[in-house]
Design brief:
This protein has helices at 8-18, 29-45, 50-65, 71-95, 115-141, 144-153, 158-187, 195-226, 245-267, 275-283; strands at residues 104-108, 111-114. α5 crosses α10 (275-283) and α7 packs across α8. It is mainly α and 284 residues long. A hairpin with a 2-residue loop joins β1 and β2 (111-114).
Length: 284
């Protein structure tokens, strides 16, 4: 049977598919999961604000260069979640840090700015902000299929991979359904442009959507079981992801390097400045 010549659009798509990939798209989802866990361990394992600052810079650069992540959306999420945390720890730790043996920088009544309070507030806020940054980068740059494939490649139990992938797929689904529900309420005469009206409508909308989502999950699970889900110890991946010896080496080397760095920092072999030491240098 003679082969049919490809059209110009098909040839362009073929060349685009076989061409060079962006660096962020060249990572296997299993590698992304390993790097995410290593970043979180470094953030909370090394007692220095330099680590979360470095992770924030890396996450910002990756979000700006990633073809799957919109930088404005990533930055807006980071700001919405981290700014209230900054205000809270700034007031609680920065102004009302407990203890008598503290170095007071400024005081007014019961409120006092101390070096110890500022160091604790800075360390806590930077850690939480770095955690939000790397988790938002992974969530916006991945989907349920990529998450499932990554967990399968890491040999995680099939049930855990299914639950995590399904939970990740529910986030955009619920967001779209909430938007549609608000549009439907607006068509019925509700002034959904007002915040007070949205707050009144949200409990009923979310309750109905959660109930429908649970029913859909149960139906999806029954359908997958009928099609043999879980009968294979290592099911095939849903998508074709680039993988090679370099990435396999990275998946092994990154956790080992993370454990070594955290152990060296905690035992004093790797001297890292704490938040109070950095504040002392800045004061001088």
């Amino acid at each position: 049977m003679p082969e049919r010549p490809l059209s110009s659009a098909a040839r362009s798509a073929s060349r685009a598919g076989t061409g060079s990939r962006p660096a962020s798209a060249a990572l296997h989802p299993a590698t992304e999961l390993v790097l995410l866990v290593c970043a979180l361990v470094l953030t909370y394992g090394v007692p220095s604000p330099l680590v979360p600052v470095a992770l924030l810079v890396i996450a910002a650069g990756a979000a700006a260069r990633s073809p799957r992540v919109r930088f404005r959306r990533w930055f807006a999420t980071l700001a919405v979640l981290s700014v209230p945390m900054l205000v809270m720890v700034g007031i609680i730790q920065g102004l009302f840090y407990p203890g008598d043996d503290v170095e007071v920088l400024w005081s007014w009544g019961a409120a006092a700015v101390t070096v110890e309070g500022l160091s604790v507030a800075a360390q806590l806020w930077l850690r939480v902000t770095a955690m939000i940054a790397v988790c938002a980068l992974f969530a916006f740059g991945s989907d349920s299929a990529r998450t499932f494939d990554g967990m399968i490649r890491l040999r995680l139990p099939l049930g855990i991979a299914y639950v995590c992938a399904t939970a990740l797929s529910l986030i955009p689904l619920l967001r779209d359904q909430v938007s549609r529900a608000l549009v439907a309420r607006a068509a019925r005469g509700w002034n959904t442009g007002r915040l007070s009206t949205r707050l009144r409508l949200m409990p009923g909308i979310i309750a109905g959507l959660l109930t429908a989502s649970l029913v859909q999950l149960d139906q999806r699970h029954d359908t997958l079981e009928q099609r043999g889900f879980g009968r294979s110890a290592r099911p095939a991946e849903l998508q074709d992801h680039p993988d090679g010896s370099a990435q396999r080496l990275l998946r092994w080397g990154a956790p080992i390097a993370t454990v070594l760095v955290v152990s060296a920092a905690l035992t004093g072999v790797l001297p890292v400045p704490t938040a109070s030491e950095i504040l002392g240098v800045l004061r001088d």
